[in-house]
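To whoever is on call:

I kicked off a structure prediction for a single chain this morning and the downstream step that reads the tokens threw a length-mismatch warning. I double-checked the sequence; it's 291 residues and nothing unusual in it as far as I can see. Pasting both halves so you can look.
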Amino acid sequence: MSALAVAMPAYATPMTLAELDALMTSTTGPSAHVIELHPQLAARLLRRNRHNRPLRESAVEDYARDIAAGTFLLNGEAIKLDVRGNVLDGQHRLHAIVKAQTPVTTFIICGLPAATQATMDSGRRRTAADALSLDDEDNSSTVAAILGRVWGWKQGDRKFNRRSRPTIAECKALLDEHPEIRRSAQIALRTHHAFPHIPPSALGTAHHLFNAINPDQAAWYFQRLGDGAELPAGHPILALRARVTSERAKEGQIAWARHLAYLVIAWNATRDDRSLSRMVLRPNTPVPTPK
């Protein structure tokens, strides 16, 4: 078997169907190439996708959004073919190229033994928190969690039960658009330290939403949520603190969307200067809109 040959031009050029077919049927051993892979070529490769794991539509959607946005980068990951041209790895990227109807520059490795498929994709997938940590982002895990929830909110997911999640590129773009989320993460962690019954991701998401409405009132709201000080009987924040404390004691945990819903209900009542002796929320209720 020959050594791995890497063809890496300064700029990848489009590959013709004939050139692709020649690569797929090459018997000279493994070879790696950087190509501009067009949708029609991706569709041709998918005809040889005969033995692979079940397709995950959510992964195809994630890749397709990045491809359409131009944030799908050449990062060393490759479309991998066996000695007969069958797809061993990369089916989700191929489907995404077809879905986005946009070409991408990618590595393609041909001529691999079919048995190597069993060893592919065995590593742990990098998360948004990992990527932010590599960027030396403070509170990277909390920032990433808030970004994921804010992205869902922007997509109109008010029950937070959709399986779609933002890609790393989408999380970074959202942070560039809303750098104040870093401050929301700091306040969330500080509030959680004082009142540990609500997860930081819910606190940070709520702070981001409330701060956009009234920064001064949001600052006061989270200070009082943390310490419960100087609040009169019937104040919505006291009802919120009592509700999550008792519900966690009885049920052990609370669905994430309920945490955010409780935070919004108490915020809206506070904004309306309305008393709230107890907080009731029917199961599977969408999170109300902050005002």
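Update from on-call: the warning came from a stale cache, not from the record. Cleared it. Sanity check on the structure: The chain has two domains: 5-115, 128-271.
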